[in-house]
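Is this the right way to post structure tokens for a design question? Let me know if I should format differently. Anyway, here goes:
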């Protein structure tokens, strides 16, 4: 259930896809595609206590819920950027598998950006 408050109005997010690679020493390395970003026009809401508990039990803490019209454009592990804020997608839901709405369960992080500077 979404409650519309002034801070819950439509916002423009940049979707940065997560890519996984291996370093020369064989270690896993993650990076985000900032060269070919996608954009979504979505609503940002704080997660309810029940949503937080559900994802925390699965080992994926969340702080926010982001929803937009249409099919999901991000997958689990991708990063959604809103100005100078970064949201890491922990789960994606397409209610009814109709492609009418996409719901992203995300964790806002300000301490880890893999060297990519946010402006």
């Amino acid at each position: 259930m979404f409650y519309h408050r002034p801070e819950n109005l439509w916002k423009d997010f940049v979707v940065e896809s997560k890519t996984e690679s291996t370093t020369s020493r064989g270690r896993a390395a993650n990076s985000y595609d900032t060269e070919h970003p996608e954009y979504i026009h979505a609503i940002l809401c704080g997660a309810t206590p029940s949503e937080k508990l559900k994802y925390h039990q699965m080992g994926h803490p969340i702080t926010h819920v982001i929803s937009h019209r249409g099919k999901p454009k991000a997958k689990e592990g991708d990063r959604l950027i809103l100005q100078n804020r970064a949201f890491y997608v922990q789960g994606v839901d397409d209610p009814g598998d109709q492609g009418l709405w996409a719901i992203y369960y995300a964790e806002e992080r300000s301490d880890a950006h893999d060297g990519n500077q946010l402006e």
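Format looks fine. Someone answered above. Worth noting: Residues 49-57 form the longest helix (9 residues). The mean pLDDT is 84.
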